[in-house]
Amino acid sequence: MKKIFITIISLLIFNVIGQAQKLNSAGIVSVYTQGVRISPDMAESLLRIEVTKTERYNVFDKLDMKEIIESANINAETCYGKKCMLSIGKAAEVDKIITGSIEDLGKKIVITVKILDIASESYDKIVIQEFINLETELQLMVQITVNKALGIENDPNIANNLIYYNQPPQTPITYTKNSGPRMGVAVVGGELGSVLTASEEYGGYDMFPVLSQIGYQFEGAYLSAGNFQALVEGLVLFTGIEQNMFNPSFTFINGFRSSKNGWEIGFGPTFRGKRTANGYYINDSGKLEDWRLPYEWNGQDTSGVYISNPNQIVERMDKRGGVKLSAGWVWAIGKTFHSGYLNIPVNAYFSHSKEGFYTGISVGFNIAKKEN
Length: 372
Hints:
By secondary structure, this protein is an alpha+beta fold.
């Protein structure tokens, strides 16, 4: 009795294994692509990798399929229809042909996976999944779609970050909050750079002309239509903290950004505090080392007679002077990179005024939030 029981169990196991092996025969061919930067051949490889990883099919090797297709005189580059797929499946003697497509439709990437049963000449499954337009995550998108087609549960944390969810239509005017911290580095030039690097004896700061910057950016898109957004930005920065310099500034920028590729350009006024003093240059030379404050004029000749200062009194930046508001103009260009819902703006800028200029690079991060 025991031997009979073991024999029956063994036959059942072998039968299940045999059927599983039969069902696990599949070929991956002809993945159509449109608008994305990967080739159909690369897209086919992605689909083959993800189907193989599920261990639901015994997937034919890429080179084996290529040899079979060539032997059957089939042009795989134009073989996208059901009839052609059946021809490939019968030539390869597989149970299933799995194919699909990857298409860029502007705001979203649409991935399709189709499983064709060769015996019944009908599709077992056709799955269409829409994702946010993030080409760097194409393999994850293919994985999510394949799992959905095969009834495999996806990790919701990964899927929710990539799947495109339809939202109600918005009017062309939409206010978008897109704020976050900023940090960067600036090179200072012109008279401003000369004063910063000058000795304190001449009213300078005795600093290196490369300064760190840290602060916060407030940004909104007040007009969004087509592929462009009109932006307004407010930027508060603290410059030169590492060199014991406390120089806050506020910049107001109006600009434009491409919604398609993230490139942007902006311009606007900037305001910062500066220390200035009235003084003169010896013999009106204009040289930094000849700069003096009025009280430094001795006013006497060799005979002791007072002589008024013949040099022109002018106002100039001077660490020993009082604080006043200074205005300038900023030009900026940059690009916003995306990683899921995280935005990483990178900008190069040039800020100039009659005292000199700042030029540098600024980097930040934020998460987009919308409100009508």
